[in-house]
Structures are given as C-alpha cells and as structure tokens.
Amino acid sequence: MNPPATRPLWQRMLIRRLKFFGVLVALVVVLLGGSYLFAPQWLLRAHVMRQAMTAHVEKHTVRAGDTTWSYYEGGQGPTLVLLHGFAADKTLWLPLAEQLTPHFHLVIPDLPGWGESSREPGGNYGIQAQAARLQAFLDALNLQRVVLVGHSMGGAVAGVYAANHPRGVAALALLDAYGLKARENDFDRAVLAGKNPFVYDDRAGFEHALELAFLHPPEVPGRIEDVFVARNRQDRAFIERTLAKLRQPDDYLSLQHVLDRLTMPVLGVWCREDRMVDPSALDSLRDGLVQASTISSSLLSGCNHMPMMEKPEATAQVLTGFVLGR
To answer: DSSP characters for 51-101?
Structure first.
C-alpha cells in the first residue's frame, strides 16, 4: 500500500469522507442511545411524527366549546372523521390513515380529555357529553355531511351523535363499538368485579393491557413502555372516573338505545377474536337498525380489539368499499 504522502488525491478524499461518515454514524448512535436511555419520549414522538408524515396528515389545533382540540387532517375526497376509543388517542389511527388518505379527506381528533386535547377538571366525559362536544368541533371546522367512523368508545360517541344530528352524517361506520348488548366475557366480568384493566403501574401491567387489546401484541422497547406507564399514572384519576361513568346505565347501552333512530347507511366491523367487546354485539347492531337506509357488516380474522392497527389494509378495504360504493 502506498504511504499517505504518495496516495492519489482520490484516495485521500475518499478516506476523509469515510472518516467523516464514521464520526457522523458514531454521533447518531450516541444520540439515539442517549435518547433511548434518558429521553425515550423524544424517540416516541419522532416515531409518531414519521407515521403522520407517511400517512400524509398534519397536526392542528382548534378551540371549540370548552375544549382545545388536537387533530390530524389530510387527504382529499369525501370527509371521514375518525373517533378513537377509551384510554387511547388519535395516533392509533395512523396505520389506517396511511391506507385512506389517497381516497379520503381525513379528520382525526383526540376526543376531549384524551391525548393532546384539553381536559376540564371534574368535567363530564361520558358518551352524551362527548357527542355534544363533537358538534362544536365539526362546526368549528365547518364540516358538513361527514362519514363518522368510531372505534370502541368512539363508536358509541359517533352513534349517539349520528342519532341526534342525522342530517350531518352521510354514513356511519362502527368498529368494535362500545355501547351495545353483547354476550358477557371475561373482560366484562373483570370490570364488573371492580378491576380496571386500563390502569397499570409497571411494564408488566402495560404488557397485560396490550394482551387484552391485541391478538398479537406489538413489541415495544422497555424504555418506550416506561413512557406509556408514566402517562397512565398521570391520567389514572381521569381514567378511573371516566370508566365509572361509562359503566352507568345511560352510557353502558348508549349506542343500543339509539339504533332505531339511525337512518343513514351503517357499517359494522368487528374482529372475530375480540376479547373486549364480544362479536355478538354485531348481531345486536344489525337487529336494532330498523330505519337505516343500508346495513353492512364485516367480521375480520386475525385481530382482537384493534382492527385499524392489526389489520389496517383489510379495514381500509372494507371502509373504502362502504363509503365509495354507496
């Protein structure tokens, strides 16, 4: 090998560039390792931002009623408003949003009290109250004749809103929705016995919560789990108070009580292996829709309670066919 002084210019330039990239890579490794150990919330925030960019949605805020709403918006086409479930937030829709933005204009809020939307101390965050707040949000964005898509608790909110404002809802899609009659399962019995599966103190509790909601729980690095545990501890009082409200008779069957008032096309989508809201709720939905202009339903295999995360492609296909096929 030639000594350094006699190396050709191109070799010396290449070595300098390799050294530069080596230092850069080492710096990135140190920064990522340090972030993982000491600021894992930064990595989680970066991951969510990347998902949002891939889904072609941007984050916005708007003041409506008693709430400062945080929401994603993006895409073009018919407007779909996606409402998340209990103890969740708007980010859970991002895998599905990636599939939908080529065909639809999406608006994905954090429901009041959850995620980055504001919360009134001691406020009522039951189904009826949230449906009333939703009206203020849609008015603030001047959204009319939307397709409402609700998951779990968000499904009950969407259904109650649609019953109260039928002219503003072009169609209603319910994903593993709360608020319907269904066969009692182990999850119901645990909640009725006073256990709250939505609160946890450590990584084991967080992993148990994932097992309740997912057929195949995602692998989450330990320090990222710690971020979710810290958030859960901070929100514990609100989670417990709101769950108690949802277990009251006016909320527990809130969707069931308005089915006969729904006149728009309605789609029910359930995971066949749902262990939180038994799939028998889909029968209650179909039987109760006596005035709906059309009724569609779909059972998805290979998922538990989170079809938009475990089966985003299949869920998007069903939703797209329902909305565009009308």
So the answer is: HHHHHT-EEEEEEETTEEEEEEEE--SSEEEEE--TT--GGGGHHHHHHHT
